[in-house]
Write the C-alpha cells for this entry.
Amino acid sequence: MKNIFLTLIVNAVLLLNFNFTMAQETFSESTQLSDCSVLPQINPTEISCNEFQFEPIVIINEETLIVNYFWNFGDGNTSLDQNPTHEYAENGTYTVTLTVTGVDIETGECCCKTTTIVVNVECGCELGTEFNFTTNNCNEYAFTASTTPNNVTTVIGYFWEIGDDISYTEQNPTHVFDESGEYEVTLTTIGFDNNTGECCCSSTTQTVTVDCLEQCGSIYGFTAVSNFDGTQEIFLETNDFTAPGWDIDSYEWTIVNNNTNQVIVINDGFIILNPGASYEVSLILTLTDEPDRVCILTHTEIFDF
C-alpha cells in the first residue's frame, strides 16, 4: 500500500513538472511573437473635394521600429511616403489601404499589419481663378489667367473687365491704358461640370497702377488740314506732347472706312483721307527714353467728310 502511494506522488510531481515546462514554453513563445508589434490606423484630411492628405497613427511597443509604410489609394496609385497627399481624377468611392512594417530591434524579426478606410470623392463644378500681369512698357500690360479647375470641371470661357470700360474674352489679353490712374482688373472664369452639365463661375480682382503717362507725353487729338486737291490730310500737329527725354519711336495709324469697312494700317507721321466717307481713325504712338523704357499712347476719333 505504501509503495502504491509513493508511486502516485512521484507521478504527480512528474506530471506537474511536465505541465509547468509546457506552460513556460508556451509563455515564452507568446512573448517572443508580441515583441514586434504594430497597430496602424488612418487619419484622412480633406484638402479639396478630390484631394486628401493621409496620416498614419501607429501604436508600437518599445522593441519595435517602423521601417516601411505602403499606401494603396484604391485607384491604381500607391505611395511609400509616411504622410502622402493624393488627388483623385474621378468621382467615386475608394478603399484606402495602409500596410505598416516593423522590425524587432533586438531579434531582427519583422511584423506587419494592414488597415483600410473608405473615402468618397464627390466633386461638383469648381474653379480656382487667379491671374498675374507684367509690363515691359509704361502703360501696356499683359494679363495671364491661371485657373485651376477640379477633376470634373472644364474651363469654357474667360471674361476680363479692365476697369476703363474695356473687356476681353481671350485667356491672356494685352491692354494699353490711355491715362494714368488705378484700375480694378477683374477676371471671371466660366466652367462646365462634365458629369452634370452645370456651369459655374469664379472671379478675382487686382489693382493695376499706371503712373507713367504724364512722364512720357500725351495725345490731345487729331487736326484735319485740307489739301489743295480736295483731299483731307490728317496729322498730329500741336495736339501731342512729348516729355523731355522721350522720343517718338513709331507711328501706327489704323483707318477704318465706315462706309466700306475697309481697314488700312499706315506707319507714318501723317495720313491722307479721301472725302465723302466716314472714318474711324486710331493712332498708337510709341515713345522711348534713354533707359530703354517704352511708353505707348493711343487715341481714336471719328471723322465725317
Notes: The domain at 217-304 is CATH 2.60.40.10 (Immunoglobulin-like). The CA atoms of residues 9 and 104 lie 44 Å apart.
